[in-house]
Design goal:
The complex is a heterodimer of chains A (281) and B (396).
Chain A lengths: L7 H5 L16 H15 L6 E5 L14 E4 L5 H11 L4 E7 H7 L1 H10 L3 E7 L2 E2 L5 E2 L23 H8 L3 E6 L3 H13 L4 E6 L3 H7 L5 H11 E3 H6 L2 H4 L3 E8 L5 H10 L10
Parallel strand pairs in A: 1-2, 1-3, 3-4, 4-8, 7-8, 9-10
Antiparallel strand pairs in A: 5-6, 7-10
Helix pairs in contact in A: 2-7, 4-5, 5-6
Chain B lengths: L15 E5 H12 L3 E4 L6 H14 L2 E4 L3 H13 L4 E5 L1 H17 L3 E9 L5 E5 L4 H6 L8 E3 L4 H18 L2 E7 H5 L1 E5 L44 E3 L13 H16 L2 H4 L2 E4 L6 E4 L2 H16 L4 E6 L1 E3 L3 H8 L4 E6 L4 H10 L3 E2 L4 E2 L1 E6 L8 H11 L1
Parallel strand pairs in B: 2-3, 2-4, 4-5, 5-8, 7-8, 12-13, 12-15, 15-18
Antiparallel strand pairs in B: 1-9, 5-6, 7-14, 11-13, 16-17
Helix pairs in contact in B: 1-2, 1-6, 3-4, 10-13
The chains are: A alpha/beta (281), B alpha/beta (396).
């Protein structure tokens, strides 16, 4: 009898959820979802022990499809909700799936302060340079000069480098990769999950239907090829001249360091008040 | 910082202590079993955060100072979903910032308590002066239309008791309960004897007992409230602020949305008898009455005493539950009054509700007009008993 091939991804998708998903053809969100699931499978995490929190946006629709403890919160607030969960149940693996607008515009304050605290939350930013769900307005990462529905003459804003922002705010694991480099992305996500502290993985992604169309980036496949050609490992990127750097961006692990983690520091504080016989618990 | 050493909680007879309203709220929360507090400093509520930052670590509870009020309400919702009895405390400006989160807690049915120690507004207003101008904000502040549970004490002891009640109602009805206070109530000190902790009734949320695969955390039932699991306990459920079906998944189906919205409404409105608390003072033979809540009701009560000594048949009615508004109780006690003075520190938020319930000034059962007189103050000062007495003498 023919066996229906059971893929890893099916183990983690919700059976009772009504598919199809909301994402457009050519969108990178599905690649990231698959990558996250494969990382969790390889790390052998208990599903009961994982909380996936998101805000609002295309990427933030991800939690509804996966069979974890999932929370689809308010626009920009995912990290603050996640902080509540992690603080109350420090043994849980708490991850945030967010977009460029969700995490660095409306949620910028929560992003930098969670990084400052170094609370053990993994933030996966699906960075597609656009507000997709609302129809294509420019975001803090839309390259200057690019078009969006609210920048019909080209965006005059400067852009955020999410990795630099995270490093500046004190995140202790910061990496960037692209949706094209799915294997590398899985490796970084695994490292981020295993890292004790605030970790950020900035995944450059394609939104061919809006960002790509408005800026004549070609087919979804062409946008993937651009990711391959325009991103360089950090070491190679550093060797480029200033002029060449304008058209490329680095990918790799920028920061990976050990610093006291917030919930552990709080546990130390609580220990002060416990009687000696309780401390073993 | 309020320094009144917290008495060890034991079954021994409680002693009389001098205590501030904000302190009573913090102690009430601890008595109710709060184990998560997230907050952001704001006058005049800060003492609540200060006391809990000192006390929670001792009990193994969690205290976190967030980056703003939006983060605070978000963190308590997250913690509550993980199983915490969670709370935040703020004042007007912070309360405005929390509204989107309060709406989320109501929509996603996450138990939590938000304390709003009211100060003068709008905007930064009067940070160190009292006001009662958030009575409507507490009801209608968040976008969307769903009822609210809002309590408002008028003494230090009652601040303690209603904080416990706020937690109990939040857990029982799976919603965000707002506890109002005001700057004077929060900062004034009174001698109180706290109730024996063993006699305090504590309600905890109902947890599911069925297998996870059968679990539907928004399933309708005769009480309109479903059990709530916690994250990390085997029930891998989805929570969203979107309109959702009974498993919590987003939906656009009119029938599913209607079921949800009706349930959110009915779970409050069908339990009004359980929710409403009022105090009637000398209303048995009264022909005229004062309607007031919170700090203004203290002046109202004193005014009643003064007027009674002068032989006037005056009483007072006070809602402890502001929302849902005690329509029936107000009608029962006040409908036949010749004169009703509504005393409040705003531009007529309670009197607006009172007029709605009364249906205007015409008393159709007696075929007579009644007087509804508004005594409003919006200048950072409290209403005094003398002002109410003088007004009574003026309007009769």
């Amino acid at each position: 009898m023919a066996q229906i091939p059971q893929k890893v991804i099916h183990k983690y998708l919700r059976h009772e959820k009504k598919f199809p998903h909301v994402w457009c053809p050519g969108c990178s969100n599905g690649i990231v979802l698959g990558t996250v699931i494969r990382a969790i499978e390889d790390l052998k995490y208990e599903r009961d022990n994982i909380a996936m929190v998101s805000g609002i946006g295309c990427s933030s629709r991800m939690p509804v499809y996966v069979d974890f403890n999932t929370l689809h919160s308010l626009h920009g607030r995912a990290i603050a909700y996640a902080t509540g969960i992690k603080m109350y149940k420090p043994h849980m693996k708490v991850m945030v799936i967010t977009g460029d607008g969700d995490s660095t515009a409306i949620g910028g304050n929560h992003f930098i302060h969670a990084a400052r605290r170094n609370i053990d939350i993994t933030v996966i930013v699906i960075n597609n340079y656009i507000y997709g769900m609302t129809g294509g307005q420019f975001s803090p990462t839309t390259p200057t000069g690019d078009k969006a529905t609210t920048s019909p003459y080209g965006n005059i804003d400067s852009t955020f480098d999410i990795c630099k922002l995270a490093i500046g705010a004190g995140a202790t694991f910061v990496a960037r990769t692209t949706a094209y480099h799915a294997i590398e992305a899985k490796k970084y996500i695994e490292k981020a999950f295993e890292h004790k502290g605030f970790s950020v993985v900035d995944i450059i992604s394609a939104c061919p239907v809006i960002y790509g169309r408005l800026n004549k980036k070609g087919t979804p496949a062409q946008m993937m090829i651009d990711m391959r050609d325009n991103s360089l490992p950090i070491a190679q990127y550093e060797k480029l001249s200033e002029e060449e750097k304008k058209f490329k961006y680095p990918r790799g692990i920028f920061v990976q360091e050990n610093k006291p983690e917030y919930t552990e520091k709080y546990a130390e504080l609580v220990k002060m008040f416990q009687k000696p016989e309780e401390q073993g618990k | 910082m309020a320094k009144n050493k917290i008495k060890e909680t034991s079954s021994k007879k409680q002693e009389m202590v001098l205590m501030q309203g904000n302190e009573a709220i913090a102690l009430g929360a601890l008595a109710a079993g709060v184990d998560f507090f997230a907050g952001y400093p704001i006058t005049p509520s800060t003492e609540i955060a200060e006391i809990l930052s000192e006390e929670l670590p001792k009990k193994g509870g969690k205290f976190i100072q967030m980056e703003d009020e939006i983060a605070s309400i978000s963190a308590i919702i997250g913690a509550s979903l993980a199983g915490a009895k969670a709370m935040t405390a703020t004042s007007g400006p912070g309360f405005s910032l929390m509204q989107e989160g309060i709406g989320f807690a109501k929509m996603a049915e996450v138990p939590c308590v938000v304390v709003n120690v009211m100060r003068g507004g709008p905007s930064t207003g009067l940070p160190t002066s009292p006001s009662q101008s958030d009575i409507m904000q507490a009801r209608w502040g968040n976008h969307g239309d769903t009822p609210a549970i809002v309590l408002y004490p008028n003494s230090v002891l009652e601040s303690y008791e209603l904080t416990i009640r706020a937690f109990n109602l939040a857990e029982k009805y799976r919603t965000c309960v707002v506890l109002l206070s005001d700057e004077v109530l929060g900062h004034m000190r009174e001698a109180v004897v706290l109730p024996d902790l063993e006699k305090v009734k504590i309600i905890n949320r109902i947890k599911p007992t069925i297998p996870p695969e059968w679990y539907k955390h928004y399933k309708n039932n005769p009480k309109y409230i479903s059990p709530l699991a916690s994250y990390g306990e085997g029930y891998r459920f989805h929570v969203t602020g979107l309109a959702h079906d009974e498993r919590g998944f987003p939906t656009n189906r009119a029938d599913e949305i209607e079921t949800l919205m009706e349930r959110l409404k009915n779970k409050i409105l069908h339990h009004i008898d359980d929710l409403v608390q009022i105090e009637s003072y000398m209303m048995e033979d009264a022909t005229r009455a004062i309607f007031a809540a919170g700090i203004s009701s203290r002046a109202a009560k004193e005014a009643v005493n003064i007027l009674r000594k002068a032989g006037r048949r005056v009483g007072m009615l006070r809602p402890l539950t502001i929302w849902p508004f005690p329509d029936d109780a107000v009608r029962k006690y006040l409908f036949d009054m010749k004169t009703i003075i509504v005393a409040e520190l705003n531009q007529g938020q309670l009197s607006r509700e009172l007029k709605r319930v009364m249906g205007g000034v015409w008393n159709y059962s007696k075929q007579k007009k009644r007087k509804i007189v508004e005594l409003q103050k919006n200048n950072g000062e409290i209403i005094t008993p003398e002002e109410i007495v003088n007004l009574f003498r003026e309007v009769r």
